[in-house]
Amino acid sequence: MGIGYADEDPVTDRRYEALWVRSGIAPGRGKPDFRRLNSRRQQRAMRYSLCQVCGESVLDRRADERVLHLLGGATPIAEGETTAAPPVHPLCAVEAIENCPPLRQGWTAALVKYSPLWGVAGIVHDPVTLKPLPTPEGRPGELQHVHVEDKKIRWTLANFTVVSLHGIIPISRDQLYEMALADERPGAA
Question: Pick from 85, 69, 77: which is nearest to 118 by CA?
């Protein structure tokens, strides 16, 4: 039971029991849209711990094995907080802060010890009417975080993988810029 495509392919269209939005990948084409994240690129970045900016692995960078997460907003990242934002290299985080209009309004960063799968972010549909359900704040048709064990997941058109963040060490602006200066990523300027 749940929503589905008439020509659904269970291998590519469904994961964690959620139906996934269909989107293409066209690297190197078009102009960046900093307000939108490609669903397939995000899923791949989350699955393989790839930087959300450059697409390279963020693993094996630090002796303590923590990875950097950068989120919009001014509220510090909390233990157990859920996010659809993939990890990021320090140098790429600085590039994003300087070039991404939404991040210019505020951001927060933390080193994260582990980030297990939590669920999906998507549009939840009513099982009877099939209309999008409003968020808890009352906004219809907006993305909601849905836990993998929630029965609503089968009625969700998922856009993004969601993880929970654990082992948080907050990072200040100065610390982030120091980390970026020390970034040894191949090809980093």
Answer: 85
Sign of CA dihedral 179, 184, 188, 189: positive
What is the pTM (predicted TM-score) of this model?
A: 0.86
173 closest CA partner among 101, 85, 103, 79: 103
Q: What is the pLDDT of residues 82-126, one digit of tens each?
A: 999 999 999 999 999 998 888 888 999 999 999 999 999 999 999
Local structure of residue 50 (DSSP, 8 states): B
The closest of 45, 33, 22 to 115, measured between CA atoms, is 45
- Give tens-digit pLDDT for 64-84: 789 999 999 989 999 999 999
CA-CA distance, 118 to 47, in Å (whole number)? 12
In Å, how far are 18, 113, 121 from 141, measured between CA atoms? Answer: 16, 33, 12
Residue-wise pLDDT for 129-187, tens only, equals: 999 999 888 888 899 999 999 999 999 999 999 999 999 999 999 999 999 998 765 55
- Counting every residue written for the chain, the total comes to 189
Strands 117-124 and 107-114: unpaired
Q: Which of 128, 150, 135, 137 is nearest to 16 (CA)?
A: 150
Report yes or no: 47 and 161 within 8 Å, Cβ to Cβ: yes
